[in-house]
Amino acid sequence: MTWLITGGAGYIGAHVVHAMTEAGERAVVYDDLSTGIAERVPQGVPLVVGSTLDGDRVARVLAEHQVTGVVHLAAKKQVGESVEQPLRYYRQNVEGLRVLLEAVTAAGVGAFVFSSSAAVYGMPHAERDDALVTEETPCVPMSPYGETKLAGEWLVRATGRAAGLSTASLRYFNVAGAASPELADIGVFNLIPMVFERLTEGMPPLIFGDDYPTPDGTCVRDYIHVADLAEAHVAAARALRSSPGRDLTLNIGRGEGVSVREMIDTINAVTGYDSVPTVAPRRRGDPARVVASADRITAELGWKARRDLSDMISTAWQGWLHHHPRP
């Protein structure tokens, strides 16, 4: 098969492209390069610059490269920005997906893997400290970004049923780390790079609220290494290829919770810093605990995360130093 990977020059997308090609799959990258970096795409993998909103261009690429499956990662993904620019997010994430699916079904493509998010769950109610979010947990997104991902799942599933398209919606939890320094996340939007930035600028890391109903009072999240996430995409793509007609919705996480304070302590240990965090007021909308149940993806695909928190932090730190060399 030949897989079209939209957003394949982005942080997660590039890891998926590398994992797919290393697994012997043929890949074509389609990216508008608004946030992607062309140099992330492996040599020998075609890169087509374009938007998913351009249906004619998508159709030409599908035909020219004889694409038989799509992994769709291209999307806007900043929660705060989505609150400020909901129309932009719905246009890019929902209308872009609709246009892409229209071209995909017209071309007779048989498999479609959709990049979703744990943001579809919103603020799941956790009655116990060890409660896990399953795929049956009610979806009540709290931001336009989360809404677009849930609407995307609905659109993918409905199209699959109507057109005979095998589909998988993968709900990512908190992605971190890098397979190599060159592929590292260069944005400063998530906890680990935010802590790196403050440490390297001589400022203490920030904890937003330490009075949550968790063991140490700080928010608890599930972190997944981006290389594990990429391998989950390979497993999903192969499952759709080998079993036409499948419709999968799967969490991608480790099933292990890490608090913000634990994360900062581990970052200090890995990087050699000894910085005491500053506690700031809670941020609006932060749930106390969001930790995945990863049982279904193991049962359906035989996939399980292999890398731990130290792997995530150490590889992310190497990537940070690569892109932000110290004088």
Radius of gyration: 19 Å
Sheet with most strands: 7 strands, parallel
Percent of residues in β-strands: 15-25%
**Which homologous superfamily in CATH is the superfamily of the largest domain?**
NAD(P)-binding Rossmann-like Domain
How many H/I helical runs?
Answer: 10
Shape assignment: globular
Question: How many beta strands in the DSSP annotation?
Answer: 13
CATH class designation of the largest domain: Alpha Beta
CATH fold-type name of the largest domain: Rossmann fold
Please tell me about this protein's structure:
This protein has 327 residues and is α/β, with parallel strands linked by helices. It folds into two domains: 2-176 and 223-252, NAD(P)-binding Rossmann-like Domain (Rossmann fold); 181-221 and 255-323, Alpha-Beta Complex (UDP-galactose 4-epimerase, domain 1), CATH 3.90.25.10. The protein contains ten helices and 13 strands. A seven-stranded parallel beta sheet has the order 3-2-1-4-5-6-10, sandwiched between helices. Strands 7, 9, 11 and 13 form a four-stranded mixed beta sheet that branches. The longest helix is centred in the N-terminal third of the chain and has 22 residues, at 86-107. The chain is globular, with a radius of gyration of 19 Å. The termini are far apart. The model has no long low-confidence stretch (mean pLDDT 95).
Task: Name its key features.
4-stranded mixed sheet, 7-stranded parallel sheet, 2 domains, UDP-galactose 4-epimerase, domain 1, globular, Rossmann fold, 327 residues, alpha/beta
